[in-house]
Amino acid sequence: MNATPPTPEDAAAIPAWPPVAIPGHPNGYAPERTPARDEAEAVPNPAAASEPLDWGASDGSRILGELRSQLARFVILPSAHALNAVTLWAAATHLQPAWQHAPRLAVVGPAKRCGKSRLLDVLTETVHEPMLTVNTTPAAVFRSITDQPPTLLVDEADTIFGSPKVAEKNEELRGLLNAGHQRNRYVTRVVGNDHTPRRFETFAMAALAGIGELPDTIMDRSVVVRMRRRAEGERVHPFRSRRDTPALHALRERIISWAGPLVDAAADLEPQIPVEDRAADTWEPLIIVADLAGGPWPGLAREACARMVAAEAQAEEDNPGGARVLADIRRIFFARREPDSLTTTDLLAELRSDPEAPWGEWGRAGLSARDLSSLLREFGIASGNVRIADGTQRKGYTRGKFLDAWRRYCPTAHPTAPIPAPPGSD
After folding, report:
1. What is the pTM of this model?
2. Sorted alphabetically, which InterPro entries does this protein's record hold (predicted)?
3. Sequence-distant (≥ 6) Cβ neighbours of residue 193 within 8 angstroms
């Protein structure tokens, strides 16, 4: 028997559910929701709305502006800096022959539904020769990278590196991703029944998305984007491959047409970069793309670089292990007017007394002498006998043993003493 739709009279006769009571609402009930009201009350993508910029007259600047808008249409990035960085990274994949270093894009978040996979969906349709992988074997990746490399897009990276036991099984893939950050870093494997040694390419740009942190060696080679779950009221367009892919592919073709003739120019540029060492290697392709595009992009790229690298440096310092303990010990020596040595007991008491540091809750009873020794061992620092004010000796640490590590890992960890004015200057 075929069901017939209700007539208007029938619909009017159906009792309506009462509105839902909401504590604190002026009339006690939620207002009726309509598409118009939803649109009016929607919070725009804050990263996209924060920079109403003129993208300039050059084709490159306009194309990057359009790519930025498309990313913001489907994904809410944590900041305008992150949105600009992802835009430049996607465009840089189309100039891979020019780069000495292939920056990784680490898209990480603390939980599910932060937009990580959706960002990879959009990148898949805009980057150079995308190779989207989930739990792919290292052998398959080896054989996919040639002298014309694809762009690796690794989703659910937490299933590969999420626990020490699992990460140990995927050490080969981690090594490949680390080696592929720099050109001319090959891996050799034996292949075939006769076990012939064969050299495999590793150089390729890669984006990895996952919950939690990726291995330190990968994060150190990455532009790190820390995603967040959308707040109530923030809206993005749903991504539908059949509907949205044609426009993204058309934009990708425009990026290719613009970037293709610029490979030699990109390879010859040596831009000024506001960071140093590996961070400079990682960000250089993005800064070069920005300089080639012109308009507001050179300034946006350098600001994003400085801010995002500084944020990761702060996150590393806040990490309970690693350089955090070095920075905290440096502050203790500074506060005590740089004594030649401190006993282990005094150091531990100072570390554990800081309410904003993790050391008071480290282990069962706070950071122990053994814990401290273990943390400092990786920096080549060991305790020894130190002489204290009463002339006796106790176990402790001399300031001289920290100097090299402080210079390398936390050169600005504490405020510096004011420089005295030269005699007769007042």
Report:
1. 0.69
2. DUF3631
3. none
Are 86 and 147 within one domain? yes
pLDDT for res 319: 61
Do 158 and 194 sit in the same domain of this protein? yes
Q: Are residues 222 and 178 in the same domain?
A: yes
Q: Let me know how long the chain is.
A: 426
Report the mean per-residue pLDDT for the chain. Answer: 81
The confidence band for 317, taking pLDDT boundaries of 50, 70 and 90, is low
3-state SS string for 289-348:
HHHHHCCCHHHHHHHHHHHHHHHHHHHHHHCCCCHHHHHHHHHHHHHCCCCCEEEHHHHH
* 283 and 350 together in one domain: no
Q: What is the pLDDT of residues 58-87, one digit of tens each?
A: 899 999 999 999 999 999 999 999 999 999
Tell whether the torsion through CA atoms of 62, 66, 72 and 77 is positive or negative: negative
Alpha carbons 341 and 333: distance in angstroms, whole number: 8
Number of helical H runs and strand E runs in the chain: 19, 10
Task: Give the separation between CA 125 and CA 245, rounded to whole angstroms.
Answer: 7
Query: Alpha-carbon Rg of the chain, whole angstroms?
Result: 28
Alpha-carbon distance values, 189 to 6, 156, 276, 394, 411 (Å): 70, 27, 34, 53, 41
- The residue written with tokens 């130190």 in the block is 386
Shared domain for 294 and 363, answered yes or no, is: no
Domain span at 358: 323-409
Asked if the model's pLDDT at residue 15 lies above 60, the reply is no
Interacting residues of 169 by C-beta distance below 8 A, sequence separation 6+: none
Task: Answer whether residue 415 shows pLDDT above 70.
Answer: no
Phi, psi of 383 (to 5 degrees): -80, 170
* Burial class, 163, CB count within 10 angstroms (exposed 0-12 / middle 13-18 / buried 19+): exposed
Nearest CA to 397 out of 362, 424, 361, 373 is that of 373
Element (H, E) at 61: helix 59-74
